Amino acid sequence: QAEAAGRMDDAIARYQEALKISPGSPLPQARLAAIYFGRKDYEQTLTYADRVLAVNPRDAATAGLAGKAAYQLNRFHPAVKYLQTALAVEGRDSQLHYWLGMSLYALLDARHALDEFYRARIYNPKDTEVLYMIGKIHWEMCRQAWEEMVRVDPDSVRVKQMVAEQDEIRNLDSEAIAKYQEILQQQPNGLGYHYALGKLYLHIGKFPEAQEAFEGEMRVDPHSYLGNYGLAEVAFERQDLPAALAYANRSIEAKPDYGDAYVLLGRIELAMGDKPKAMEVLEHAATLSPSDASLYFVLGRVYNELGKRDLAAKAAATYQQLKGEQEKEIEVAR
Q1: Distance between CA atoms of 70 and 86, rounded to whole angstroms?
Q2: Do the Cβ atoms of 89 and 60 come closer than 8 Å?
Q3: Contacts of 155 (CB under 8 A, 6+ apart)
Q4: Res 331 pLDDT > 60
Q5: Residue 43 DSSP class
Q6: What gap in Å lies between CA 211 and CA 286, rounded to an integer?
Q7: How many CB atoms lie within 10 A of CB 225?
Q8: Exposed, middle or buried, 255 (CB in 10 Å: 0-12/13-18/19+)?
Q9: How far apart are CA 202 and CA 184, in angstroms?
Q10: What is the model's pLDDT at position 17?
Q11: Residue 324 has what pLDDT?
Q12: Closest-CA residue to 87 (of 59, 111, 128, 112)
């Protein structure tokens, strides 16, 4: 009753009196460990937690508390052992996985820490602390790999590609174009580089250059779904709808699960006046690329033109939601 009322000094005194009567009783010691943890007295937390675990080594709650207390005291190896003990009993507890991940990360074992954070995400996918640590470790691993790549071969194609991709994220189109041109001089038959260059030209409205780049991708790989998709985009921008339709269908033939090609095909069908076909294609695109905001914008327009107001409103709401999420992701990437 004293603990429930928040009178912790009284609660401590009563639990200690209970221990004088029954020194080995685990319940008062477990409660004392929890009270001291709440007071941030982690040494006392461990003192009482160890006594509980000596009697009942499968007490997951106390082992988890001890793991968190040891972590706060920078005793990371014991923290790992306590938390592993708790997880052997309560394997679906997201917080136990999180604190084990934090302890392993503190021990510079980022690889196994990442495993624990992913397990924590399974049981609580909306925990932003878990998501932050997953992103943080991946970013650190990426940065380490990039730094090592630069040290090993600073003039390699991959180093230049990394720089070009960063320039593209920052909307430095001219710099990214120049870097891809360097790459193509060094490796003219590399897969994907012509397409990446064409995409940049398309973004700044240089359609002849974009078409030339996409055709270059097709020379490297005559079955390239990306090359066909790029040519379909150029044809669509030029309002050459029959050519756009043909290229989009070739892209889909080469890769039937490529959602972007279906989105473009839906736009083409709409521009050609076949609204039911556009709806069919775009609804299929939504099953392949459910996070693509642009397709819901076009799909909402199609629904409106077909008189499907409720579906149009739903598509518009999805578009606004995804657009906001994508804008945040782009801002973070920059």
Answers
A1: 14
A2: yes
A3: none
A4: yes
A5: H
A6: 28
A7: 20
A8: middle
A9: 18
A10: 85
A11: 84
A12: 59
Cβ-defined contacts of 147-152 (< 8 Å, 24+): none
The answer to whether 67 and 83 are in contact (CB under 8 A) is: yes
Report residue 7 as tokens: 């009178």
C-alpha to C-alpha distance for 268 and 248, rounded to whole angstroms: 9
How far from each other are the two terminal CA atoms of the chain, in whole angstroms? 54
Place of tokens 């070739």: 250
- DSSP secondary structure, 224-250, as one string: -HHHHHHHHHHHHHTT-HHHHHHHHHH
Q: Dig out the tokens for 253 from the structure.
A: 């033939």
Q: Is the pTM of this model over 0.85?
A: no
CA gap 258, 285 in Å, rounded: 8
Are 141 and 110 in contact, with CB atoms under 8 Å apart? yes
Q: pLDDT (tens digit, 9 = 90+) per residue, 261-273?
A: 999 999 999 999 9
CA distance 245 to 25: 78
Query: Which residue type does 232 have?
Result: A
68 Cβ contact partners less than 8 Å away, ≥ 6 residues apart: 37, 79, 99
